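Researcher: First entry.
Model:
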Amino acid sequence: MAETGIRKDKVNMSGKRKEKASVLSQREIAPDIYDMWIATDMATEAKAGQFIGVYTNNPANLLPRPISICEVDRERKALRLVYRIAGKGTAEFAGWQPGQEVLLLGVLGNGFPINEGKGKKAVLMGGGIGIPPMLQLARELSEAGSDVTVITGYRDSRLFLKEDLEKYGKVYVATEDGSVGTKGNVLTVMEKEQIDADVIMACGPMPMLRAIKAYAREKQIAAYISLEERMACGVGACLGCVCKTTHKDAHSHVNNARICTDGPVFDARAVSYTHLRAHET
């Protein structure tokens, strides 16, 4: 397959805004991994693969923490966020109680291209905290008539969100310690189970995404990957989450794209191996 440029079907970013919301529920579903529902009007426009910025209540923290959208409930106008405690900000979020008022920025980023998987064999791959975005994606693809298969990669037997994902397709599990499912990673499962795919959509750590890019290129399968990256502003102003690409930006004439606005979902062919290797740790 020939290399390609940045996707042109990005979600319109003109609607991003700050909005007060409230916590509906919160629970720990695995060690340091929390499941929180938030009531917000942003649920009426949110799509699989997008994220929101969540502000802490500490006035010293001026920038929001980016958290991917796990599930959307449009009827209740609620978003489900499944996140891992990674610092002081997310540690504060884990202590929030139902009824607490919070401030959000969103909806941010472009989502997965559902039309690219419509009516096709779509294989979703999620690794670690890259698993939550696969839930809304599985739902949207299932509703679009896709044949959905989900491969999830965990460290051990604590299989958060597995039952939720099983509502929308066949789920295979890989664990690093071999305690459940296949010992190895998501591509180990792909090859062991001889799973066919018309399109792959994935989110997870950089080594996993680099391997998926290589696999998709070898097998000539379309692949879309959501990059996990530290972000500051979330709206493309600070250039703190630049991604190396295989094409030159039309305006800057350099091989860069901003993950928060041009991504986080990219056609895998557009992301350079240099970027994926440099961010493996």
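Researcher: Second entry.
Model:
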Amino acid sequence: MDKLRVLYINHTGNVSGAEILIIRVTDELDPQYFEKIGMCPFDGKLHERFAEAMDHVESLPMQSTTTGFYSRFKQYASSMAAVYRVMVKHRVHLVHANSFRAALIAAPVGLFLGKPVIWHMYDILQPKLKNVFVVRLYSRMVKKIVAVSNATRDALLRVGAPKSKIKRIYNCLDREKIFENAQSDQELLVNPAGDGPKIVMSGQITPWKGQDVLLNAIPTILSTHPKAHFYFIGESHLPADKEFQAQLKEQAQAVGIEDKITWMGFRRDGLAMWKQADIIVHCSVYPDPLPTVVMEGMALERLVIASDIGGVPEMVIDGVTGHLYSPGNSAALAKKIEEVLADPTEAAQMAKQAGERVAEIFTMDKNIKEILDLYKEALGTNRKHQLAAPQHEGNGRMI
């Protein structure tokens, strides 16, 4: 039987929640029936992860640090040409564009070659004229659009995406694998104070992720919990983000809290770190579609305190499975952290309920079934032998 050849395209070479999700999805596909081609820039660590997960990996000539209209235009043009070559070389049947920019590159090529493109949307677009024009145009080129949360779907509708093409499919995880990968016989989060609480924030260091919101809350928290220690996991990529991180470190030094903070950088053992945390903090000030760190923290039964924005309220039920606070409000964040530290018994109960919520709603089986159903819709009847194949339960799924 001819395998179904699927091309997975990421516009960035960095590893983030969206990239981890697509790797989880491809891991579940039966190699007897699927051939997986990954395509991404080689200027980050993602191509190494793709090499582990895909049958083939090809380079996409995009760079996350490129600025200026002309330079970006050249990269998009060369990227489209590269996607065309890869699709022809591997005789691709279906394209899964794993971001907004990936869809901008892949959709015209798929339309030209007569191959269906699925646009996986992780962003929450603002209702600007530019977004309205682009979304309405590209919605015509793709077969289906995946929105990772209700917030993402609603934003797409506001800028003119047709409701008939949008399918909300929550991101997912495998709790068993999450717990397995979180096991560590090492103390990864070392608190210099010894037995003080460990508070973790994870994510790309960039202004919209709001590391400064937590930084501004730290002096207040230390006034009641002087043994608390704070860990920032993640790295900055763009020059502006590197400058932002430098400013954060200068601020910490200026107010005398630099010894209460550990900058961890990018870590592949992040799950093991989160498992050792007392509190996981999410601080985005811009709508976050469905942040992976919140979902994984909940799955690991850690107490999550998150910004009440974007798709976060679809995961965290305030006061039941975690806490929400007003975006950008450092005083509100500090108050929530102090409340949690003051009542560890209630915090543990909420964290347990968080794990149960993830197990009920954000499951791998549900996600894979919905993705494969979408593949069926996008392919139509031109792959009858594939569409007629039985569907496995658990690992080794096929259409």
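Model: Note on the second entry: The chain has a mean pLDDT of 89.
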